[in-house]
Amino acid sequence: MLDDQTADAALHDQAGAALNKLMGRANFTGVWELPWAGKNVEGRSGFSGQVRWGVILPSNPSGCNLQ
User: Fold this and answer.
1) Which residues, at least 6 apart from 66, have a Cβ–Cβ distance to it below 8 Å?
2) pTM for this structure?
3) Which runs of E-coded beta strand occur in the chain?
4) Rounded Cα distance, 56 and 34, in Å
5) What is the DSSP letter of 42?
6) Nearest-angstrom CA–CA distance, 33 and 5
7) Which of the two residues, 27 and 12, has the higher pLDDT score?
8) Virtual CA dihedral for 10, 11, 14, 15, nearest 10 degrees?
């Protein structure tokens, strides 16, 4: 799962309760700092964004086709 945590003019930096609950179950998590090509809230170009990520492993690994 991915969660864009970049603060922007529309205040999209707040994750919903359901996503936070899923992130709490994740076996692996982290944050990517990624360069964005647009302009940030202050109007500067060349800013970066933050994307929180999480991976929940399958409860039954034998049923996973991606092995």
Assistant:
1) none
2) 0.66
3) 2-4, 28-35, 48-55
4) 22
5) T
6) 10
7) 27
8) 10
